[in-house]
């Protein structure tokens, strides 16, 4: 690991830890990640020559986490209504364009980017608010610990022992050994972080191991999915910040899949209390 990568990774760990504990830092960091992730995604799509609504998408994307922070709901299913209104707005913007070439691709990609980055990432807020007080903070810490430990395990094991490519047509560097290391680190972090899980729900050891393996695997799917997007856009990194870490999307790709999955899983577990 290069010195620059180590420094950036250390800084990200410190910022993430502060954001988990402090609500205001959490709000600022999550909004920054949302803006950065959307900007990188739309920049990648522009390189393919697809006519998208990047700035409109970023502005709308910011409204999703803000509405959750402010507990703003017009209806019980406010998010579904928001998606419908968003689609209508993008169609209206397309109507005023002179060129309708690739209109369907542009509309679909803009909507996908907002859902993929902003909506998926906003589930971190929902996880934090799922249980009042510090229990919600612990729940957020658990899923981030399991997910990012998997990323670290994939890097350490893959760079040292990786020989057999996992999916070379999607990611030329990810290996089976790295994937196994990622799962091992996720399981270990889940076991070590068992105390972060809600005390009112019974989590035997086998269940905690399952959580580590399951969400570690979901995190790897998120990583591979972002690699697929980059491969399709013919780029190595999604961005240049944080330095040496490959961009914002590279930092949050695994969390984009684990956050909503973990939220729905824990919601069902808590309803059974």
Order of helices and strands: HHHHHHHHH
Q: Kindly, what is the distance between the CA atoms of the first and last residues, rounded to a whole number of angstroms?
A: 45 Å
Percentage of residues in strands: under 5%
Poorly predicted residue ranges: none
Q: Helical amount among residues, as a percent range?
A: over 70%
Classify the secondary structure makeup into a structural class.
mainly alpha
The radius of gyration computed from the alpha-carbon positions, rounded to a whole number of angstroms, is 19 Å
Number of strands: 0
Mean pLDDT: 87
Question: What best-fitting shape do the alpha-carbon axes yield?
Answer: globular
Summarize the biggest pleated sheet: none
Number of helical segments with 4 or more residues? 9
Task: Give an overview of the whole structure.
Helices cover 74% and strands 0% of the residues. The mean pLDDT is 87. The protein is mostly helical. The chain has helices at 3-21, 23-46, 54-69, 78-95, 103-130, 134-161, 176-192, 205-232, 248-271. It has one domain. The chain has 9 helices and no strands. The relative contact order is 0.13.
């Amino acid at each position: 690991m290069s010195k620059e990568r180590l420094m950036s990774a250390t800084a990200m760990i410190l910022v993430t830890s502060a954001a988990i504990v402090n609500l205001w830092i959490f709000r600022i960091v999550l909004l920054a990640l949302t803006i950065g992730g959307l900007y990188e995604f739309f920049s990648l799509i522009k390189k393919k020559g697809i006519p998208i609504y990047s700035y409109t998408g970023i502005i709308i994307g910011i409204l999703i986490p803000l509405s959750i922070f402010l507990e703003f709901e017009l209806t019980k299913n406010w998010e579904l209504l928001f998606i419908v209104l968003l689609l209508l707005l993008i169609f209206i913007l397309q109507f005023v364009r002179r060129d309708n070439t690739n209109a369907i691709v542009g509309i679909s990609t803009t909507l996908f980017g907002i859902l993929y980055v902003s909506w998926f990432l906003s589930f971190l807020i929902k996880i934090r608010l799922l249980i009042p007080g510090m229990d919600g903070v612990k729940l957020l810490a658990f899923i981030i610990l399991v997910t990012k430990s998997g990323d670290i395990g994939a890097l350490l094991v893959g760079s040292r022992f990786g020989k057999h490519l996992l999916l070379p047509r999607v990611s030329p560097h990810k290996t089976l050994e790295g994937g196994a290391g990622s799962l091992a680190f996720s399981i270990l972090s889940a076991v070590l972080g068992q105390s972060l899980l809600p005390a009112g729900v019974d989590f035997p050891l086998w269940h905690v191991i399952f959580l580590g393996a399951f969400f570690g695997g979901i995190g790897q799917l998120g990583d591979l999915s972002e690699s697929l997007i980059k491969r399709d856009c013919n780029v190595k990194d999604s961005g240049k910040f944080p330095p040496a870490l490959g961009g914002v999307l590279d930092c949050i790709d695994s969390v984009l899949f684990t956050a909503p999955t973990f939220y729905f899983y824990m919601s069902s577990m808590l309803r059974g209390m």
